[in-house]
């Protein structure tokens, strides 16, 4: 597997672990493509930028962006879930070698660490006229750098 996909999976499992005590939350590794149950948290990888950092050094910074969409039943639930995610990111996210297998059957080896460069929370208004069911949506956006590659 590519290291980028291992990073995607590591972000997914990190967020999924944050909600292991909330049995009614669905955590998806992509934007929901079917009828969505609320509450749902969807994690999508965004841009991958290689930026030159030092003159003469051809090793670029690898900056990655993820979009974590939270769909909730109430404004309070949306905010609580988004704040939980934001607070869980303070020390970054460990990257694991999921080629060895997946939890809970296997404890994969740590192969890297995503250091947090930026995190933000954006409440997104949902127009009731366009939806049959009212829900609240928020988006947590994170930008990271794998500081152990």
Helix content estimate: 10-25%
Strand tally is: 6
The major sheet is characterized as: 6 strands, mixed
CATH classification, class level: Alpha Beta
Query: Which residue ranges are poorly predicted, with pLDDT under 50 across at least 5 consecutive positions?
Result: none
CATH superfamily: Phage tail protein-like
Question: Which secondary-structure class do the elements indicate?
Answer: alpha+beta
Q: Count structural domains.
A: 1
> Assembly type of the shown chains?
single chain
Euclidean distance between termini CA atoms: 15 Å
Order of the strands making up the biggest sheet: 1-2-3-6-5-4
Task: Report the C-alpha radius of gyration, rounded.
Answer: 17 Å
Q: Give the CATH architecture.
A: 2-Layer Sandwich
Strand content: 35-45%
CATH level 3 topology? STM4215-like
> How many helix segments?
2
Mean pLDDT figure: 88
Written description of the protein model:
The protein has a single domain (3-146), classed as STM4215-like (2-Layer Sandwich). The chain contains two helices and six strands. The protein has helices at 3-18, 75-88; strands spanning 26-28, 40-51, 61-72, 93-96, 110-124, 136-146. The model has no long low-confidence stretch (mean pLDDT 88).
How are the SSEs placed, and which strands pair?
Layout: H1 3-18, E1 26-28, E2 40-51, E3 61-72, H2 75-88, E4 93-96, E5 110-124, E6 136-146
Parallel strand pairs: 1-2
Antiparallel strand pairs: 2-3, 3-6, 4-5, 5-6
At a glance:
The chain is an alpha+beta fold and about 150 residues long.
């Amino acid at each position: 597997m590519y290291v980028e996909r291992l990073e995607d999976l590591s972000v997914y499992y990190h967020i999924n672990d944050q909600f292991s005590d909330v049995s009614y939350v669905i955590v998806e590794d992509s934007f929901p493509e079917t009828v969505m149950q609320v509450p749902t948290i969807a994690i999508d990888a965004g841009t991958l930028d290689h930026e030159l950092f030092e003159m003469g050094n051809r090793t670029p910074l690898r900056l990655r962006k993820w979009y974590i969409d939270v769909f909730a039943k109430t404004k309070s639930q949306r905010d609580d879930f988004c704040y939980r995610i934001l607070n869980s990111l303070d020390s970054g996210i460990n990257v694991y070698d999921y080629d060895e297998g997946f939890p809970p059957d296997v404890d994969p080896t740590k192969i890297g660490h995503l250091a947090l460069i930026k995190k933000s929370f954006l409440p997104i208004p949902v127009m009731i006229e366009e939806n049959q069911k009212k829900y609240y949506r928020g988006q947590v956006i994170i930008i990271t750098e794998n500081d152990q590659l």
